[in-house]
Every structure is written in structure tokens, then in C-alpha cells.
Amino acid sequence: MRTVLLAFFAATAISLACVGLYGTLSYSLTLRRREVGLRLALGAARSEILKRVLLEGAGVSALGCIAGTILALAFARTLAGMLYGVTPYDPITLATVVALVLIVAFVASLIPAIRASHVEPMQVLREE
Fold first, then answer.
1. Domain boundaries in the chain?
2. Among 18, 13, 15, 40, which residue's Cα sits nearest to residue 112?
3. Is the pLDDT of residue 30 over 70?
4. What single-letter DSSP state applies at residue 123?
């Protein structure tokens, strides 16, 4: 029962992280639409815009993974009673969770990145 509950909370946390990252990047790009349009008008490649937004999402996610790993290691003894078949300091489990979070963050960042790279520069620059 405890394992099912922890798995449910983990799935909920991953979903919330995905939605939160998507929302934050989407809002950030809405505020910077003119900047993206200007970059495209001045000759920036759409792939560069895509790469820049994906790296922004990856940077935020990497900082979150570092903080989460540090907190997981700090509270390992507290959680040791709830773990079954896994040691609190299991590097394979920690690496798998970090990889999963980074993959989810990449997918969450991909939609705003594609949307930003397909902005029409002249339409954005005409808006006020």
C-alpha cells in the first residue's frame, strides 16, 4: 500500500513538474515574443531559437535535479524505512529518476520551443 501511494505521488510530482515547466516557458516566451521576432528578422536561424529555448528548459531542469538529488541524499535515512528492495543511496535509482525528469522536461520544453521558432517576425514586430 505504501509503495503504491509513493508511486502515485511520484507520478503526480512528475506531472506537476512537466505542466509547471511548460507553463513557465510558455509564459516567458509570450513576454519575449518581440525579442524572438527581432532575432528572426535579423537573420537568426529557427533552429537557433529552438535550441536556445530547449537549453533554457534544460538548465532549469538540471538545477532542479541537482537540488533534488542533494535533498534525496540528505533525507535518505528518513526514507529508508519506506523503501523495499532498494537502498537509500542506490545510484542506479537516482540516475534513472534524474534521467526521467530530464526527458520529461525536454518534452515539456519542446512545445514552447517549436512555437517560438515558428513565429512570423513581421507580424510580431507590428504588434504593440
1. 19-126
2. 18
3. yes
4. H
Nearest alpha-carbon partner for 98 in 123, 127, 71: 71
Q: Mind spelling out the 3-state secondary structure of 31-96?
A: HCHHHHHHHHHCCCCHHHHHHHHHHHHHHHHHHHHHHHHHHHHHCHHHHHHHCCCCCCCCHHHHHH
- Which three cell numbers, joined as nine digits, stand for 101? 525528469
**pTM score, two decimals?**
0.75
The rounded distance, in Å, linking the Cα atoms of 36 and 31 is 10
Report CA torsion sign: 52, 53, 56, 58.
Answer: negative
Q: Are 53 and 21 in contact (CB under 8 A)?
A: no
Given a cut of 80, whether residue 81 has pLDDT beyond it is: no
Rounded average pLDDT over 90-112: 87
Contact between 15 and 8 (Cβ < 8 Å)? no
| pLDDT recorded at residue 66 | 94
Q: Which residue has the cell 537573420?
A: 43
* Model pLDDT, residue 125: 82
